[in-house]
Design brief:
By secondary structure, the protein is an alpha+beta fold. It has helices spanning 65-78, 108-123, and strands spanning 4-6, 11-16, 20-26, 30-36, 41-47, 87-92, 127-132, 138-143, 149-152, 159-160. It starts with a strand and ends with a strand.
């Protein structure tokens, strides 16, 4: 059993088997993972907002989907992952608060999930599994030995995607 490495909010990390990456309490945020099944290298970014270009103070690249996903890819390759083997999974993107209408703030979870799909498509990395939307938070773990992405939510049974 390896180390359990915590990824904070607006944070990203890369790890190798036998370690596991985890992030707690994904609400509207997205926990996006990339994994190289041959090298057993995994990476996770916990981003809060989809698009850094809409925000003036955007120095934290892990806070945004567009910059965070690209930086995660850069670090994965630096650590020996092969871009052609990478697969991605996402979780989170919940709507944590009931909103009337479709205000831009209200559907940030949906926009975060859409951003992941868009950026991964641009980068040519297949999104092979997702557990997004609905109205509850998730805690997730990426096992770098197997590539399994464990999703835990209060009052729900755990699942692997």
């Amino acid at each position: 059993m390896g180390e359990l490495i915590k990824v904070g909010m607006a944070d990203l990390k890369v790890a190798k088997a036998p370690d596991t990456l985890t992030t707690l309490g994904l609400g509207s945020c997205i926990g996006l993972t990339m994994y190289d099944p041959v090298m057993k290298i995994g990476g996770m970014v916990h981003y809060m907002l989809p698009d850094s270009t809409k925000i003036k103070n955007n120095s934290n690249i892990a806070k945004f989907g567009d910059t965070g996903i690209q930086e995660l890819l850069r670090l994965m390759l630096l650590n020996g992952a092969n871009r052609r083997r990478l697969v991605a999974k996402i979780a989170g993107g919940a709507q944590m608060f009931a909103m009337s209408g479709s205000s831009a703030i209200g559907n940030v979870g949906d926009r975060n999930a859409e951003e992941a799909v868009l950026i991964l498509r641009q980068l040519g990395i297949p999104l092979i599994a997702r557990d997004t939307g609905l109205n509850y938070g998730r805690t997730v773990e990426l096992d770098c030995s197997t590539g399994q992405y464990l999703i835990k939510a209060v009052g729900k049974s755990s699942k692997v995607i």
